[in-house]
Amino acid sequence: MHAAWPEVERCLPQLWRTVRGYEANPALQEELMQEVLLAIWRSLDKLRESERLAPFVLRIAHNLGASHVRAAVRAPQRLDLDEAAAELPGSEAQDEEMRWLLKAVRRLPLPLRQVLLLQLEGFDYREIGELLGLGVDNVGVRAHRARKQLQEMLDGRR
C-alpha cells in the first residue's frame, strides 16, 4: 500500500460528494468512484507535496467526473433520482427541496457545475482556479453564473 493511501481514505467523503455531483445513478456512482480511486492510486507517485493531497485527489475526481459527463452527453440517458438524496433525513418538504436542488445542480453546464461543487466543498476562488486551471476572475464569473442559473431555475419552479 502507498504511504499516502490512509490520507486518501480520509478524503473519501469529499470524493463521494464529488462523484454524486456528476452522476445521479447509484450504480454508475460506484463505477465512477472505482475509476477515481484507481486513477488516484496510479497517480500518487506524481504527488510532490503531501500537504496538497486533498486538492490533488479532488482534481482527479473532478477531471474524471467531467469526462464522465461529456461521455454521457454523447450518449444521453434518462437519469434516475440519486438514492442518497432520497434517504436524507428531514421532513418530506426538505427531502423534496434537496432532490430538486441536486437535479438542478446536475443540469448546470459542466464548467459552472465544477466551480459550484468545489465552492460547496469549501475551496476558495484561488484554490478552485488552481484545481481547474482557471484564473481567479474566471472562477468568480463561473460561480456567479452558476448561482444565477440556479436562481432562474428556482424562480421558474415557483
From TrEMBL:
InterPro entries documented for this protein: RNA_pol_sigma-70-like, RNA_pol_sigma-70_dom, RNA_pol_sigma70_r2, RNA_pol_sigma70_r4_t2, RNA_pol_sigma_r2, RNA_pol_sigma_r3/r4-like, WH-like_DNA-bd_sf
Classification via Pfam families: Sigma70_r2, Sigma70_r4_2
Transmembrane segment boundaries: none
Coiled-coil blocks: none
Domain RNA polymerase sigma factor 70 region 4 type residues, every copy: 99-150
Annotated GO biological process: DNA-templated transcription initiation
Entry annotated with the keyword DNA-binding: yes
Domain RNA polymerase sigma-70 region: 8-73
Highest taxon of source: Bacteria
UniProt-recorded Gene Ontology molecular function terms: DNA binding; sigma factor activity
Record's keyword terms, sorted: DNA-binding, Sigma factor, Transcription, Transcription regulation
Family the UniProt entry places it in: Belongs to the sigma-70 factor family. ECF subfamily.
Name of the protein in question: RNA polymerase sigma-70 factor (ECF subfamily)
